[in-house]
Amino acid sequence: MNLYKYASPATFYPLAGKLIPWFAALAVVFGLIGLYLGLIVAPEDAQQGQVYRIIFIHVPTAWVGMVVYLVMAAYGVAALTLKTRLSSMMMEALAPTGALFTALALLTGALWGKPTWGTYWIWDARMTSTLILLFLYVGYIALIHAIEDKKRADKAGALLVIVGSVNVPIIYFSVRWWNTLHQGASVSVTGSKMAAVMAQGMLVMALACWMYAIAVVLVRVRAIILERQYKGANDMVGLSMGARGMAGTEMTGTEMMGTK
Amino acid sequence: MKARYKRFIWVAIGLSVVALAVTLVLRTFNSNIVLYINPTEVAQKKMPKDRNFRIGGMVTAGSLKRQPDGLTVKFSVTDMVETVPVSYTGILPDLFKEGKGVVAEGKLDADGVFRATEVLAKHDENYMPPAAADALKKAGRNMDGTPIKSIEAPAQSPTPAKP
Questions:
Q1: What is the ipTM of this complex?
Q2: Which candidate from A45, A116, A118 shows the least CB-CB separation from B128?
Q3: Is B18 in CB contact (< 8 Å) with chain A?
Q4: Of A218, A251, A225, A227, which is closest to residue A17 (Cα–Cα)?
Q5: pTM of this structure
Q6: CATH class of this structure's domain A22-249
Q7: What is the pLDDT along chain A (260 residues), one digit of tens a residue?
Q8: Cβ of A181 and B122 within 8 Å?
Q9: N- or C-end of chain B: fewer Cβ atoms within 10 A?
Q10: SS3 letters for chain A?
Q11: What is each CA distance from A40 to A35, A37, A53, A96, in whole angstroms?
């Protein structure tokens, strides 16, 4: 039962608070190293010249966008089966970050597509399935806010995310399954088709994106824990929403933001 | 059985059913998902009739000819089995090169020439500094390290769906 200890919002809240500065600091360090490797150390590409440098942001954001969705789906399974309270809160905290990174991947890809391919956008399988991923994120956020009852909202959201997770392998394998304009994977488990320093710059930038994503999600989940506890306490005692001071007794010194 | 496990099994069943449904749908629409067809499929008349389609392959080395008007170019697209001549009036993307991947949209004329309305460069997944690319070229190898002669066409449509 020890594992469940950190699935409780009350124990997770202070743990997250302690972890945030570390992840934030690592994001800055990796970001600086990654930009140095990518913009200064790495040479230009034999075919694309300088334009290729967009991969140092495009590929990491696309990875984060896809993996965050899988993490959300895993939390969705936990929310539906184990009924751990923290799972739904983590899903809610992850969604905006996943949506942001997916949007960035689409945007940087479009900016890179014009000079290399000759078009900003084409409806090929890789790009279309990535756009669907963005819609799934936005759909999840809209869905959980459209349902008044928080428990039902969480359940519906978890279902949507689990069903939508089928899309992630489609994005990943689309360049192998179908003819697409988007090229195949340069870096995969079987090896890299990039010069070493380019691949290193990309991986360090990916680490920076990950550290940033984790830090931001932890900040957001703390806000969600406070918000829900405050609302829950008010509902139970039957106080009006304007009442103060019920929920945060264990969390002194934290501002009760986020409630109207 | 614990209720927790029961719920887990339901989620697993649900997810497999959705995955199966999506697989079937994607297989059915395979020909619509494919962005382009390759010259072999053109030779087999597997393209849609009376409507624009895209062909993809490699620009045949030595086939690029600029026309006197300065804007029209003629080249041929090959998948190492079949070759389709292409005519295009417009600006080519920077990465358009002989021996590199290309995707062109247009229609096939009665005389067998593909009249392209749009030409896009299909980029490959190799990234390396210019010096390394030169060294490979001198050694007679492609960017992925294979000898230049055994080069494969980039078009790798697994199975062309029924027309």
A1: 0.73
A2: A45
A3: yes
A4: A218
A5: 0.81
A6: mainly alpha
A7: 466 677 788 889 999 999 999 999 999 999 999 999 999 988 888 888 888 899 999 999 999 999 999 999 999 999 999 888 899 999 999 999 999 999 999 999 999 998 888 889 988 889 999 999 999 999 999 999 998 888 899 999 999 999 999 999 999 998 888 888 888 888 777 777 888 888 899 999 999 999 999 999 999 999 999 998 887 776 666 544 444 444 444 444 444 444 43
A8: yes
A9: N
A10: CHHHHHHCHHHHHHHHHHHHHHHHHHHHHHHHHHHHHHHHHCCCECCCEHHHHHHHHHHHHHHHHHHHHHHHHHHHHHHHHCCCHHHHHHHHHHHHHHHHHHHHHHHHHHHHHHHHCCCCCCCCHHHHHHHHHHHHHHHHHHHHHHCCCHHHHHHHHHHHHHHHCCHHHHHHHHHHHCCCCCCCCCEECCEECECHHHHHHHHHHHHHHHHHHHHHHHHHHHHHHHHHHHHHHHHHHCCCCCCCCCHHHCCCCCCCCCCC
A11: 8, 6, 10, 32
Decide if B143 and A46 are in contact by the 8 Å CB cutoff. yes
Give me A258's structure tokens.
């986020």
Angstrom distance (rounded) from CA A164 to CA A69: 9
Instruction: Specify the residue for token string 């029209």.
Output: B72
Spell out the domain ranges in chain A.
22-249
Collect all residues of chain B within an 8 Å Cβ-Cβ radius of residue A194. Answer: 126-128
Mutation target for A interface from B6, B126, B141: give the one with most A CBs within 10 A: B126
Calpha distance A102→A63 (Å, rounded): 9
Q: In this predicted model, what pLDDT tens digit does every residue of B57-82 receive, in sequence order? A: 889 888 888 888 888 899 999 888 88
User: Does A183 lie at the interface with B, CB-CB under 8 angstroms?
Assistant: yes
